[in-house]
Specification:
Blueprint: H1 5-20, H2 26-39, H3 46-63, H4 73-83
Helix pairs in contact: 1-2, 2-3, 2-4
Length: about 110
């Protein structure tokens, strides 16, 4: 993959997401992408979770009175990753982060 492939991929995907979610702009999707890549331990994962992240950002901003309810959302995801809640559940697909036993956050108390 060349150095130009990733920015073009991000540009194309961010445009699709901005069209799909009316209250986000292409620039805000690219910014979220950059934020997520900078806080994640495995930045390549962001390519797979950007759609639900933009969907959640869109929903949070739509429900909030100021339109900025999603501010700092990437830090919440980083926190989930740090405590292990962001790992793929066993049997839900292949991933290098999958574990053989459930994470504590999956167990009901």
């Amino acid at each position: 993959m060349t150095g130009f492939a990733e920015p073009q991929h991000i540009t194309d995907e961010s445009l699709k997401l901005a069209i799909q979610y009316k209250n986000v702009t292409q620039a805000s999707v690219i910014e979220l992408w950059k934020e997520m890549r900078s806080v994640m331990t495995h930045p390549e994962v962001v390519d797979h979770i950007i759609d639900p992240m933009v969907r959640a950002t869109s929903l949070l901003d739509a429900k909030g009175m100021t339109g900025t309810a999603s501010h700092g959302f990437s830090l919440l995801v980083k926190g989930a990753e740090n405590i292990g809640a962001a790992k793929v559940r066993p049997g839900s697909g292949s991933s290098s982060t999958a574990t053989s036993r459930p994470c504590r956050s999956w167990v009901r108390r």
